[in-house]
Amino acid sequence: GIVNGMDVSEWDPTKDKFLAANYDITTALEGKALNKEALQAEVGLPVDRKVPLVAFIGRLEEQKGPDVMIAAIPEIVKDEDVQIVLLGTGKKKFERLLKSVEEKFPGKVRAVVRFNAPLAHQMMAGADVLAV
């Protein structure tokens, strides 16, 4: 089986090789902000520290809730100044739906439907909110 959890050394923000800026508890606020800006630029969203950035990383299978996230996105972005980045692969219907949501909300939603470990690290370090 696959062990759940994460390698705390690999994902340590003080030395994570995939981050634009490493940080620790004393530099977390500035480090997170720099990583957020780098993430926004990387995925093609407007770079703005003040806009809340939500990240979803996961397999696109019913048990992981992409259908719930896809249904919620229009409600979230219609009245709020917010950005959403989604990363994952899985069922083709969910991949198509994510790309469709991205097309409906340019400048607010980015859907990356491929495996991309470096981007997952960047999303964890740069997002203001993680949707699980």
UniProtKB/TrEMBL annotation:
Under the heading Pfam families, the entry gives: Glyco_trans_1_4 (PF13692)
Q: Which PANTHER family match?
A: GRANULE-BOUND STARCH SYNTHASE 1, CHLOROPLASTIC/AMYLOPLASTIC, GRANULE-BOUND STARCH SYNTHASE 1, CHLOROPLASTIC_AMYLOPLASTIC
- What this protein is called in its record is Granule-bound starch synthase I
This protein's species is: Elymus repens (Quackgrass)
What is the gene called? Answer: GBSSI
Checking SUPFAM superfamilies in the record gives: UDP-Glycosyltransferase/glycogen phosphorylase
